[in-house]
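Write out structure tokens for NUDIX domain-containing protein.
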Amino acid sequence: MTDSTPPAPLLPRVGCGAAIIEDGKLLLVLRRKDPEAQHWGLPGGKLDLYETVADATIREIAEELGITITLTSLLCIVDQIDRPRASHWVAPVFRATIQTGTPAIQEPHALADWGWFPLTALPTPLTEATRQALAMLRTGAAR
């Protein structure tokens, strides 16, 4: 007997992230997992069902780095469309500040490293979402 259940439709997934800048330096994390393993990116993650984007961003960064953040404004919305891999992510990216804690890797299976980097000397390679957010940050289009 064959399974006649049609495959689930491909739908965009929802991610989130935050640009945290202190003393002119941007907080980035080095991903261990695909997609974009060994790429530096903004901290963040994906939404859970019935979770607001703001709550997900705060939760994901606490889970990844053990810090509490405050979201200060919406920087941009990243559209990451990868047709060859049948992947589409939409991710609001916020500006944020650290309220409590010092960043430290809390999920070593997902993140290899973290660091503060001057906007003029960022590590490479960067994730696609981070490149898009940086373009908005640099143009000042979202203040």
